[in-house]
Amino acid sequence: MSDIFNNELFEAFASASDNVYIYVCDMKTNVSRWSKAAVDYFGLSGEYLEDAANVWGQHVHPDDLKVYTEDISGVFSGEKKYHDCQYRARNAAGRYVWVECKGSVIWDAKGNPIIFAGLMTRIDGQSKYDSLTGLLTTQEMHYFDFASQSGIALLIGLDGFRKIISNYGYNTGDDILIKFSREISDLCKPGWKALRFGGDEFLVIAFASDLQEVTDFYEEICQKTDNVKLEDGRKVGISISAGGAFFPQDADAREVLINKLEHSLEYAKNNQRGNMVFFSEEIARIHERGLVLREDLKQCIRNNFNGFELFFQPFINPVSGAIAGCECLLRWKGERIKDSYPMEFIKVLEDYGDIHEVGFWVMEQAIRQQAAWRDTYGELQVSFNVSYQQFLDDTFEERAISCAQKYGADPNYIIIELTESCQVEAPKELAAMFGRLREQGFKIALDDFGTAYASMEMLKWLPVDYIKVEHSFIRELAQPGHDIDYVIVDSLLEMCRRLGYNSIIEGVEDSKVAAIVGEMNATLLQGYHYSHPICRKEFEKLLDEDRK
Question: What is the DSSP letter of 476?
């Protein structure tokens, strides 16, 4: 047997990895030796094979046989120096897997091939094809030419997919992703590429296509996903958003293109959900601002929350007109961005998971301030907002109780406001926590009540003390044609009285509205008519004037 088969170097390489296989062929005898790992994995007849090219060719996927044959023939004919191609090969279990094959030929002095040797690497299924959907992965973008070809790229994301998983489970989520990937594949035109970008996002590369073609494609995808039928017969409506970019105009390289697509999709989800938005310099500017916001917020948190501040908006007793307490509202000013409003920076905190840490800071500052005001102004009702996600923190209940004990605050004057009650997914668990907090004396309020049916349904589950009537029902009460708002508010307040809840009417913006709601038997009133949210010193001035 040839020495090229029986040497220590072959043995060393042959046993180096279960995913990398080596082979050596004696070109004179057309006999080759394959590593034992290759024999076992691909189900070869043995380590030594005659006419291995034909034997191995039977393992190559029919669709890839031409690529394999042309490449290796080029090496044997001398047209190519190296064998280097990727294709699918059938393993011992009968399943096709992707392999990357590299090899070279050694020639004798007369120009005759004497040895052909190489390495075959089994490519992880995730590197070329996504294991769930069967679509190409973004690894394949390395082989796309964005510089000399023109077209449009779309990054498509499913809106609220995490909510779908929470409601239906991960198996249903996978079912939806598979069906969605099939719809994309079926609607793609010849020459287009559909890829799984990751998670609930998909990438479509529309080579040599115009905007109208891509627009038609997106609209058809939206229609197809409007009512997805699940395996168990249920139907789920799926909303999608997309970010788009032109190549090579917007980007002629893979990384730049992906970057701009991600910016565009993020903008679409945040500002034009359900639509397709193409990259622009304005989108780039907004994205850059978001990055700066995130960095500055992180720095402020690390720096003992420097830059964060509580503002206070008074609660008014409608009978006496006196200040009965206040709502604590978070404000922030960064080193570089000084004009960020709560809706902007709080969303950044939520998106990147920092809202929990900042939320606990707000809670501690609010409770500390309530206790500090007691000696000068007596007991004031002080409220602060807590999102449902914050309540899911296992330490929330314990930290609220220990914080009140730390500062000597009376929980009976602390109101914890649940925001976004319509997003509550586990009302029974939340109800149990509310019950325990109320046993300690804390008051619970449902914020923005009446804006969704789900907030009404929450009353069946959650033990609360206050209902905050949403300001959209209040602001235009004094305007003609808004009698229905009055009826709604009056009905909500009557419901509160019958159920034994206190009520807070927010959004009292002017004297006319104040006069109307002042006669509606609400517990507390709140709005710009009395005061905008103001800093602690300004709020204390109001308290001083109120106590004269």
Answer: T
Over its C-alpha atoms, the chain yields an Rg (Å, rounded) of 33
Residues in the chain predicted with pLDDT less than 50, given as ranges, are 1, 125-126, 452-454
Residue 384, classified by CB atoms within 10 Å of its CB into exposed (0-12), middle (13-18) or buried (19+), is buried
Q: At what angle do helices 396-407 and 427-439 cross, to 10 degrees?
A: 20
Overall pTM surpassing 0.70 (yes/no): no
Is the bond preceding 248 in cis, omega lying within 30 degrees of 0? yes
Query: What are 146's two structure tokens?
Result: 């964005």
CA distances from 516 to 67, 485, 487, 519 (A): 80, 12, 12, 6
pLDDT digits 0-9 by tens, 318-329:
999 999 999 999
* Residue at 261: amino acid letter: L
Which residues have a Cβ under 8 Å from the Cβ of 449 and sit 6 or more positions away? Answer: 421, 455, 467, 468, 469, 470, 492
- Rounded CA-CA distance 334/292 in Å is 9
pLDDT one-digit tens code per residue, 107-119:
888 878 888 888 8
Residue 80's CB is within 10 A of a number of other CB atoms, namely 16
Q: How far is CA 17 from the centre of its chain?
A: 37
